[in-house]
Design goal:
There is one protein chain. 15% of the residues lie in helices and 34% in strands. The chain has 649 residues and is an alpha+beta fold. The strands form eight sheets. An eight-stranded mixed beta sheet has the order 29-30-32-31-33-34-35-36, sandwiched between helices. The chain has a four-stranded antiparallel beta sheet with strand order 1-2-3-4, with no helix packed on it. Strands 5-6-7-8 form a four-stranded antiparallel beta sheet, with no helix packed on it. Strand 31, helix 2 and strand 32 form a beta-alpha-beta unit. The longest helix has 19 residues. The radius of gyration is 24 Å and the shape is globular.
């Protein structure tokens, strides 16, 4: 019989260092010749992203340190590398945002674009002897940041001559998904303008190419209230794409000027375009289409448009699933599962029983399954409608709680606010649950994965609907006897940090709060944030200056008298999305009121922590903080000093 120990004080084999060092997210895979290459974050190398390939059973690093393949287009990047079948690696270097190339015979990369002109590049692809990309130029003053689709010579002739970079098409605030038709005669792309985000309304445009430039174009789908995404040519005159015109992102086909729905369903094949180049479907030889479908969790489906046949495919990957590349019947995809930490998977659709097999796991050494909690989909009634979430119960093979004790619970609030929690295995979640702390991952109104109406529940109501939904979800879990209602904590990052702060200043539901680079002042966010999100708040809150009173009233910093809850604040000092001033203002407000708090600032970290030492410090501090405030003794983590410590803590 396992020993009886209080929740939160259970011994665990999963350390913060295990979470940081053992987790190396895999991104953007592709077939290169006969090999499989991918992008992998290296937490032990200052969080840089390296291109790697599968060697003799072990990964080999192709892009050596200190090179870091990471685009900063839109600040969130995407599509930071590509490669020729002969093995020439083309990538965006994080530090200067130039495009570089590394041939198999090279000892070091050589530049393809010039320095010092404020240009950034993303969503790289090869078209003949050119690299096509999305470019944004930061030489302009203020929020106006020009963007266009460009062609960069692969021969390096533009390294010292910016004029050698050809602008293919511009004319909108934002562009994405440049796709050249198989005959080279046309270009398809996605375009949208301020104040909309791509998930609010974006157009699919098709233009004629003359001497490598678009001479005229037409919008074939999308618009102010329709989000079109990911065009893919299936032949020289036919496009498959995603649109949410029915309220769900579904597949459509454009041919001969007509748009036709492909297997419509109340499920999502699509998502928010935070990162350039992400794919939710892949056209395959013979006309078939492999697609991701999401309603809460993810599923793989194989569609034959000619017959209309649709087949669900068995897959361990049911969370955060994206499709990367196809070569014949072989497909590369990413994702996690309910009991699998996931990573990069290979699926051969010609197998008699096609199932994805793991190529590169996102975790080096997974703990025994007995330590992993099973995600349970839950739905609770909230004041604005049903609220969806995934609950993870405390899970340990070596400890049980005293009879009658209810566990503390950490409520997670994702960012975006259009992101989506999908119930996959997480080493970070297991770090808490294995110690006897429950976790509730909430998809509040505004989250993707449940259709446009659920997403638009947040329109004009950011700081209200999301706040109420996380409070309702936490209260629902406590009312079911699955968590101690007096020991609920909330943690959010970025937009999730905003929701956490709003919940802490408008409700007494939570006993502790953790904010990672959270938004605290809407007017400051509108003034300080980068161009990609410069008008995001128009839809979430209202346009300035007309809605200034709403901005003031909703901002937690406008209600200093409502800060009564102990807090841990974590902030990257290089964050351009939510500048440190926001977190510092919260810290100062807590200090002024004498509320117990800790503030951790990290040099070299931006929006989202990448370095192993940062991740370790945050997780250890969070566990120590929760123990200090919620009244349990965590094992094997350093104590955390709190400023302005209340005697009750």
């Amino acid at each position: 019989m396992p020993p009886t120990l209080p929740y939160g004080s259970w011994p665990s084999p999963i350390s913060a260092a295990d979470v940081a060092a053992g987790s190396h997210p895999v991104d953007g895979a592709r077939f290169v010749g006969d090999e499989i290459w991918w992008l992998e974050r290296m937490p032990g190398e200052a969080g840089r992203s390296a291109v790697r390939r599968l060697g003799d059973g072990e990964p080999e690093t192709l892009l050596p340190a200190p090179w870091d393949a990471r685009s900063r287009v839109h600040e969130y990047g995407g599509g930071a590398w590509t490669a020729t079948d002969s093995g020439i690696l083309v990538f965006v270097e994080k530090t200067d945002q130039r495009v570089w190339a590394l041939s198999p015979s090279d000892t070091a990369p050589h530049p393809l674009t010039p320095p010092g002109l404020g240009m950034r590049f993303g969503e790289l692809s090869l078209v003949g002897d050119e690299v096509w990309a999305v470019r944004e130029t930061h030489a302009a003053v203020g929020h106006v940041t020009p963007r266009d689709i460009v062609a960069i010579p692969l021969d390096g002739s533009a390294a010292d001559d910016a004029a050698a970079i050809r602008s293919v098409v511009a004319g909108s605030d934002f562009v994405a998904y440049p796709r050249v038709s198989p005959d080279g005669a046309r270009l398809a792309w996605i375009a949208w303008d301020h104040p909309r985000m791509a998930w609010d309304g974006a157009e699919l445009r098709v233009g004629s190419l003359v001497d490598g430039r678009v001479t005229k174009w037409e919008a074939v789908a999308g618009g102010p209230t329709e989000s079109a995404l990911q065009p893919e040519w299936t032949d020289a005159a036919e496009l498959t794409f995603v649109s949410d015109r029915t309220g769900w992102w579904n597949l459509y086909r454009w041919s001969d000027g007509e748009v036709t729905a492909l297997a419509p369903a109340e499920a999502e094949t699509g998502g928010p375009l935070w990162n350039l180049g992400i794919r939710w479907f892949l056209p395959l030889p013979g006309g078939r289409i492999l697609a991701v479908r999401t309603v809460g969790s993810d599923a793989l489906v194989l569609l034959d448009p000619a017959s209309g046949a649709l087949r669900a495919l068995p897959s361990e990957a049911t969370s955060r699933v994206l499709l990367d590349d196809a070569r014949g019947s072989r497909v590369l995809l990413r994702g996690a599962g309910a009991r699998s930490f996931g990573g990069l998977w290979l699926l051969d659709l010609d197998d008699p029983d096609p199932r994805p097999t793991l190529v590169r796991g996102a975790v080096d050494a997974a703990p025994d399954a007995a330590w992993l909690p099973a995600a349970r989909a839950v739905t609770v009634d909230g004041p604005h409608g049903p609220v969806h979430a995934f609950a993870y119960a405390p899970t340990s093979p070596v400890a049980v709680a005293p009879d009658g004790e209810l566990p503390p619970c950490l409520v997670l609030v994702h960012g975006g606010p259009t992101a989506h929690a999908s119930g996959g295995a997480s080493l970070e979640v297991a770090f808490f649950t294995s110690r006897g702390i429950g976790v509730l991952d909430v998809n509040y109104g505004g989250s993707t994965g449940y259709g446009r109406a659920y997403r638009e529940r947040l329109s004009g109501q950011w700081g209200v609907v999301d706040r109420d939904d996380v409070v309702a979800a936490a209260s629902g879990l406590a009312s079911q006897g699955l968590a101690d209602g007096a020991r609920l904590a909330i943690r959010g990052g970025s937009a999730g940090g905003w929701t956490a702060l709003c919940a802490l200043t408008a409700s007494d539901r939570f006993a502790a709060g953790i904010s990672r680079y959270g938004v605290a002042d809407l007017r400051a966010l509108a003034a300080d944030t980068h161009d990609f999100e410069a008008r995001y708040l128009d839809g979430l809150v209202g346009a300035l200056p007309e809605a200034e009173d709403v901005y003031i009233d909703r901002s937690p910093l406008s209600h200093l008298d409502r800060f009564t809850t102990p807090m841990l604040i974590e902030q990257g000092l290089d964050d351009a999305v939510v500048p440190p001033a926001q977190s510092e203002a919260v810290r100062d407000a807590l200090a002024a009121k004498g509320i117990a708090h800790a503030y951790l600032a990290f040099e070299g970290e931006s929006h989202g922590f990448r370095r192993a030492e940062t991740i370790v410090r945050c997780l250890q501090a969070e566990l120590a903080f929760l123990g200090r405030v919620l009244g349990f003794e965590p094992l094997d983590v350093p104590a955390l000093a709190l400023d302005a410590v209340d005697p009750g803590c």
